[in-house]
From TrEMBL, chain A:
<dbReference type="InterPro" id="IPR001851">
    <property type="entry name" value="ABC_transp_permease"/>
</dbReference>
<keyword id="KW-1133">Transmembrane helix</keyword>
<dbReference type="GO" id="GO:0015658">
    <property type="term" value="F:branched-chain amino acid transmembrane transporter activity"/>
</dbReference>
<dbReference type="GO" id="GO:0005886">
    <property type="term" value="C:plasma membrane"/>
</dbReference>
<feature type="transmembrane region" description="Helical">
    <location>
        <begin position="191"/>
        <end position="207"/>
    </location>
</feature>
<protein>
    <submittedName>
        <fullName>Branched-chain amino acid ABC transporter permease</fullName>
    </submittedName>
</protein>
<keyword id="KW-0472">Membrane</keyword>
UniProtKB/TrEMBL annotation, chain B:
<protein>
    <submittedName>
        <fullName>Branched-chain amino acid ABC transporter permease</fullName>
    </submittedName>
</protein>
<dbReference type="GO" id="GO:0015192">
    <property type="term" value="F:L-phenylalanine transmembrane transporter activity"/>
</dbReference>
<dbReference type="GO" id="GO:0015808">
    <property type="term" value="P:L-alanine transport"/>
</dbReference>
<dbReference type="InterPro" id="IPR052157">
    <property type="entry name" value="BCAA_transport_permease"/>
</dbReference>
<feature type="transmembrane region" description="Helical">
    <location>
        <begin position="111"/>
        <end position="132"/>
    </location>
</feature>
<feature type="transmembrane region" description="Helical">
    <location>
        <begin position="312"/>
        <end position="331"/>
    </location>
</feature>
<dbReference type="GO" id="GO:0015188">
    <property type="term" value="F:L-isoleucine transmembrane transporter activity"/>
</dbReference>
TrEMBL record, chain C:
<feature type="domain" description="ABC transporter">
    <location>
        <begin position="41"/>
        <end position="272"/>
    </location>
</feature>
<feature type="region of interest" description="Disordered">
    <location>
        <begin position="1"/>
        <end position="23"/>
    </location>
</feature>
<keyword id="KW-0067">ATP-binding</keyword>
<dbReference type="InterPro" id="IPR003593">
    <property type="entry name" value="AAA+_ATPase"/>
</dbReference>
<dbReference type="GO" id="GO:0016887">
    <property type="term" value="F:ATP hydrolysis activity"/>
</dbReference>
<dbReference type="InterPro" id="IPR027417">
    <property type="entry name" value="P-loop_NTPase"/>
</dbReference>
<protein>
    <submittedName>
        <fullName>ABC transporter ATP-binding protein</fullName>
    </submittedName>
</protein>
Amino acid sequence: MSTTLKNTLLFALVGALILLTGVMQSWNSALLILNMGLISAIMAIGVNLQWGFAGLFNVGVMGFVALGGLAVVLVSEPPVTEAWAAGGMRIVLGLLLGAATVVAAVLVNTRMPAGRLRVAVMIAVLIGGFFLYRGVFDPGVDAVEQVNAAASGFLGGLGLPVLLAWPAGGLLAAGAAWLIGKTALGLRSDYLAIATLGIAEIIIAVMKNEDWLARGVKNVVGLPRPLPFEIDLQNDPGFVERAVSLGIDPVTASTLYVKLGYSVLFLVVLLVLLWMAQMALKSPWGRMMRAIRDNEVAAEAMGKDVTRRHLHVFVLGSAICGIAGAMMTTLDGQLTPGSYQPLRFTFLVWVMVIVGGSGNNLGAVLGGFLIWLLWVQVEPIGLFLMQVMTSGLAEDSALRAHMLDSAAHMRLFTMGLILLLVLRFSPRGLIPEK
Amino acid sequence: MDFLNAIVALSNFVLIPAIAYGSQLALGALGVTLIYGILRFSNFAHGDTMAFGSMVTVLVTWWFQSMGISFGPLPTALLALPFGILGCMALVLITDRAVYRFYREQKAKPVILVIVSMGVMFILNGVVRFIIGPDDQRFADGERFIISARDFKEMTGLSEGLAIKTTQGITVVVAVVAVVLLFWFLNRTRTGKSMRAYSDNEDLALLSGINPERVVMYTWLIVAALATVAGTLYGLDKSFKPFVYFQLLLPIFAAAIVGGLGSPLGAIAGGFVIAFSEVTITYAWKKVLVYLLPDALEPSGLVQLLSTDYKFAVSFVILLIVLLFRPTGLFRGKSV
Amino acid sequence: MSGGYENRSNKDATITNTVGKGEFDPHPGTGHPMDTAEAFLVGDSMTGGYGKGPDILHDCTLSVNPGEIAVIVGPNGAGKSTAMKAVFGMLDLRQGSVRLDGEDITNLSPQDRVVRGMGFVPQNNNIFTSLTVEENLEMGAFIRRDDFRETLAQIYDLFPILKDKRRQAAGELSGGQRQQVAVGRALMTQPKVLMLDEPTAGVSPIVMDELFDRIIEVSRTGIPILMVEQNARQALEIADRGYVLVQGANAYTGTGKQLLADPDVRKSFLGG
């Protein structure tokens, strides 16, 4: 069987499974799986760029995805003018002071001769800067958070169209990745894994606690959408008429219409990014990246600036994760920092890449769809299996109740099992690197 | 008197919790560092190994409690601990046989083992949640305090109370015993020395007739014991919740790296460095400063450097500082 | 399939630890025993290379008897170390045999050869740097279940400096002292034959002389010694047998004195 045929069949299989979901469950869930599958595929492309092309072990995907989500709030929410008046400038000034402190400390470290004096000055700058920053920043935060605390209490965003948030999410993630890469890659290329794991947790911690930024765990709901609301469609006589003429209930039709709209938007983004990633892979740049990955020492000896290349690819891959994160938050219509879990947003994406085939963009896309589909469907299948397995037990048996309750946790188990099976029996993934 | 009060407040809110937490982290970091030293990869499943061992302990504890077995003033969990360790040992040996051994025979790159450990992490996470559920579980019993704040105040007449929880005392005692046993084993026994030799130079160890599979087996057994003890102590001190153990991965790794990966002594030091930094930086110092400063200078705020939600940031920043200025860790580890 | 596990060269020392990771693959045997001349240790007509790669050795024969020092010399890339590794079972032999004390050991793994009485000191990484000197020696005796204190005392007699430094980490010692630890570790099994791969690589001339003296002392205890040497002249001076290898084959064989006197050998390998 030729590779092209095999790959086509694999994609067709996933497509058929999604269609099966539509027939067996509902078209709404099928479209939901499709949409999240598209987003997962984009995340997988980002991670594949880092791991598959460059061998960078980034386990901070969650952080970049969350930053993308934050970008949606910052770009599309209308600004809260009272909050800006109350303390917005103070917060900005505080942040600038904080940044200035860090810059000053870095300058002290690089410009002054080493010795006791440098350490003393450095500590003085850091401590002084910290208290100055807190002194300016804290009152501003208090003032902002007091403005209509129940419904708002944050600075809001720029009030721009929400689609702009997608590239903005990529930029935000890229900026963070650049900072992280500069410290973790620039100093020693090898501390990336633990560094990214930590950074992701810190990003989530910031988003949960800095209420002035995006309301923290109080969540921002009702984000603007690029597509009309279902209720508006249902009130639109033209739409209702067309739905009826197609023989679909207008309510269902409106939900399907919106979801399909998202699918089209996401598909466009996926195709553009996939095309770019494929071009990058085939370009001299991509060949060089893989050469570095396969033999860092030789590449370095040939005069390649390995750290710089790693920084490029790290920033690019993280930016793609950021875009995907922004798209996901747009789809959800809300930002809920509490819902970001490393197992779901970092390690699951890794499973997608490994299962799909690291080093192959099509593989990553396939992995994204397939693993997401399984992630969603394992729960009902697990429940079904549990019902079958426990059908012999008495109706009120405690064991039975426990097994049925626990079916929800089958997901993690299944994902681990799939990862291990693929690593063992097909370590290059479903669509291996050429 | 104010000075004494300040010291008591400091001990009560900073020193004692940090010592207990540090012991728990140190035990966890020892497990990570041993795997790194002998099997040569970072075990991302370590947090979930701890959760599994603790889960077995919790289940056995409940069973003992239901049968009316208790350990007097001490928590019943201590009686159940050996069973937890045995359960965890069985788990890691099965995992090694079913999963990791294959990759050793293939001489796979260590980074593949790291990814494999991610798979194991998922599975263990699922198993633990499947068996005991994702929620908080209470299993501590026995006497709650060695000294309660009220008793201490009555005894000393100070206005600050000093409370030492039984679990904190037990944590420190058990951790010391475990560490002493571990170092005795590594430095004094033939098997322990062979483990160190294997970690140092695998080829030469083979030439010396050291059986790598035996070394690996002993390593897993020790790691299982350490992980279960660490997890159970943490669960007793705080509470048992599967997800929390997964999150402990970051401070545990930070402790192991700060101390110098592959160095057992470093893991212990790293555990305390991380714990003390976390607690001091996220503690509201007002309570202590009130006693020390004259009234005029009394702080108006809480004097808390960072909110407790940023404790991850603390471990991370310390990690970064150590990497910047002493990349091999406090004790020269293997991460050069 | 194993190809799938090699395609990422991740250098992340935080998550993976390659320090001290083993590199050798045992490749014992041809599967065909062969009859060879009488000698205590013989590597007879050995032909082979690493893995499926090209042959490095071509019909190469080495042997050594008790009380003797046999030295392998030759130009760079002649396959000196490879020949010794072949005797120790770290090469894929396609032809030839290795016999120890009349027994065919061609098909044994290196570890099994250690059990049969071969002591091997590799050229690099030949001590446990983080263990103390005494622990290094103890690890040398790992396969012995009997009381090895006597052997330990003998080794301290042979290398008195090691006794002074026995509580010190072996990695803190000087180059010459490390080599003594390495030889001592190999002697702890009370081997029937000792093989040294370039024991004087990277030490100063004075230390080299001292090491050669020690090696002669070891040889006087009756243990046959087979060693590879870069410093051909000095090595041949103490050699009872000398093998000059060129491109993996025996070029000249004789006693050390004969080889030193041979004008061809002098011209080609000893610089006149």
